[in-house]
Inverse folding.
């Protein structure tokens, strides 16, 4: 099947691909493998063991990690839900609202945070919270997460929505559905794959955010990334690898669900 | 038009988009229980008019009545008309049965009643065995029939069809024409059909409204429009025709004698303002002329070419003065009709009453 002009015929293509894959994935593989190491060392292999997983759950740092995990997952869940709801309304308005003034501006405003360096957003958010006198803690993290997750949730929803012709809503209204019923019974189910993808993306982005969280979190409130960072500062122990591996599994699961959802949708 | 017994009355309806006028004061009536067709080339405003009746386009000026009730200000879901969309717009996340039940449920039918009615409708379009499938598992023709069943299920007062056959291949399209026609008769619902296909319009419609450039050109029965087109647009758009420039020589109340540019004369029915000396256009259908061996008659010319189109042969004959006529000869059993080779001189016999004088 390798036709002339196929990229495989370019010299060095294979080598380049290999280098990219190795650079991308070898750290992940090494972390995963060494999370099962019996040794206290992070570089010397001494045999298979689950001791570091046990250490995460029951070891000296387990209380800290448990609270951080609860914070991380609850923030990710709430932030993803809220930002997806906001992004869905925004997409409905921008895609279906016809040509209104500032339509392009609205679209730009929603996607701009993707292009602004995260550190800028982090500092700005911190200054904003200080300015309005919002005490830093769990709530500040949550609010910040909801805000920066919106563009991530928005993009897949908008992409999905643009693929839905407006004759579907017209057909629903023609069949005696009010605008609200047409939205709920026809448009929303058709947008669902985009909404799920947006939700999962927002969830992952919230779950692993470090920079913004680190700026806006209050003293004593940790999420998994900040807790891991705190631990690493005192020296890398294999339990960090175990936590990282578990987070990796969660991410892979999310991506897989998102893939399956979109796959299932395009096949029917 | 309160108290009207027509299914639809459109009164001086105008549609403007900014400075562009899509429809220029349309007035027409669609009778109860008829198969009515809006026919015209793309961009003529036929779909806009249909969408105004359905409620998807606002009416800039004028009124629309449904069985005497003014409806142009009602939102689509409050108008008891249903639409079969060009791309069908079946809800992809619902089964065929759920699609057909949708309108019934939205109108407040119970689930059981809706399911029963949906079953009947799917029976009507011969798709009962597919009720549990999703639209994507059906062929284009089947999807089209589901769209029809879905729109008919709530028993609309008028069914609107927006070029529903245009996505189907020729054979299927022809089969669907007769099916649509028989479903219309069976249900007794008024059908308003939009198409750009004149053959589709002629074969199915009780009456046809021919539209062009946002205006109603002619409204009448299929035969009427074909035999007695009022203007060049209609004559040319419906079927094929020979359009000739002529000047009126003499005219009384019923018959006008016209002279072509090459001096030949022809009688036709007089219309309104055909005064002697007026420049007019004549339309002669290709099948209303026959060819014979040249016999000294002034109506003669030379065969330029023969075009074989299956059911018949179209012969292009050049008359004196450079006027070209297309004559259609039925492709019947061998020997009945003679096909003259290019270059042959032939006599052209125009049937009495074949020439039709046009208003413009």
């Amino acid at each position: 099947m390798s036709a002339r002009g196929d990229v495989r015929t370019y010299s060095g293509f294979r080598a380049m691909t290999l280098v990219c894959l190795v650079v991308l994935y070898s750290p992940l593989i090494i972390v995963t493998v060494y999370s099962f190491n019996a040794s206290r060392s992070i570089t010397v292999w001494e045999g298979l063991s689950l001791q570091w997983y046990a250490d995460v759950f029951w070891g000296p740092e387990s209380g800290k990690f448990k609270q951080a995990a609860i914070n991380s997952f609850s923030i990710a869940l709430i932030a993803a839900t809220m930002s997806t709801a906001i992004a869905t309304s925004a997409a409905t308005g921008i895609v279906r609202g016809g040509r209104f003034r500032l339509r392009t501006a609205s679209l730009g405003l929603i996607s701009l945070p993707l292009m602004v360096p995260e550190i800028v957003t982090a500092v700005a958010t911190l200054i904003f919270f200080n300015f309005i006198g919002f005490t830093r803690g769990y709530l500040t993290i949550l609010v910040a997460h909801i805000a920066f997750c919106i563009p991530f949730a928005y993009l897949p929803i908008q992409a999905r929505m643009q693929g839905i012709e407006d004759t579907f809503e017209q057909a629903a209204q023609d069949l005696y559905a009010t605008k609200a019923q047409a939205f709920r019974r026809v448009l929303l189910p058709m947008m669902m794959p985009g909404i799920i993808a947006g939700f999962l993306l927002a969830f992952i982005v919230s779950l692993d955010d470090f920079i913004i969280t680190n700026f806006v979190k209050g003293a004593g409130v940790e999420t998994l990334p900040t807790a891991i960072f705190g631990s690493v500062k005192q020296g890398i122990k294999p339990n960090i690898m175990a936590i990282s591996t578990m987070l990796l599994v969660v991410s892979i699961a999310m991506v897989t669900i998102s893939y399956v959802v979109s796959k299932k949708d395009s096949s029917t | 038009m309160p108290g009207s017994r027509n299914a639809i009355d459109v009164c001086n309806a105008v549609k403007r988009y900014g400075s562009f006028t899509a429809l220029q004061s349309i007035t027409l009536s669609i009778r109860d229980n008829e198969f009515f067709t809006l026919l015209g080339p793309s961009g003529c405003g036929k779909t806009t008019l249909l969408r105004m009746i359905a409620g998807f386009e606002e009416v800039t000026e004028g009124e629309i009545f449904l069985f005497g009730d003014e409806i142009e200000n009602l939102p689509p879901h409050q108008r008891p008309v249903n639409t079969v969309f060009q791309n069908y717009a079946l809800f992809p996340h619902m089964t065929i049965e759920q699609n057909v039940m949708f309108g019934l449920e939205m109108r407040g039918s119970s689930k059981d009643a809706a399911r029963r009615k949906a079953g009947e409708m799917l029976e009507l379009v011969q798709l009962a065995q597919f009720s549990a499938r999703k639209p994507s598992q059906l062929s284009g023709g089947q999807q089209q029939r589901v769209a029809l069943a879905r729109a008919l299920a709530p028993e609309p007062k008028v069914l609107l069809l927006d070029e529903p056959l245009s996505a189907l291949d020729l054979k299927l399209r022809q089969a669907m024409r007769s099916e649509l026609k028989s479903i219309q008769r069976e249900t007794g619902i008024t059908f308003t059909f939009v198409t750009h296909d004149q053959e589709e319009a002629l074969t199915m419609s009780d009456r046809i409204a021919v539209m062009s450039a946002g205006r109603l050109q002619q409204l009448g029965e299929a035969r009427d429009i074909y035999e007695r087109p009022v203007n060049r647009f209609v004559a040319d758009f419906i079927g094929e025709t020979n359009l000739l420039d002529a000047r009126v020589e003499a005219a009384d109340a019923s018959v006008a004698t016209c002279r072509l540019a090459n001096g030949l004369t022809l009688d036709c029915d007089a219309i309104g303002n055909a005064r002697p000396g007026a420049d007019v256009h004549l339309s002669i259908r290709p099948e209303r002329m026959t060819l014979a061996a040249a016999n000294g008659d002034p109506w003669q010319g030379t065969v330029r070419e023969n075009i074989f189109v299956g059911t018949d042969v179209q012969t292009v004959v050049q008359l004196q003065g450079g006027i070209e006529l297309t004559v259609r000869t039925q492709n019947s059993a061998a020997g009945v009709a003679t096909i003259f080779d290019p270059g042959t001189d032939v006599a052209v016999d125009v049937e009495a009453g074949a020439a039709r004088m046009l208003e413009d």
Notes: The CA atoms of residues 94 and 101 of chain A lie 11 Å apart. Chain A has eleven helices and no strands.
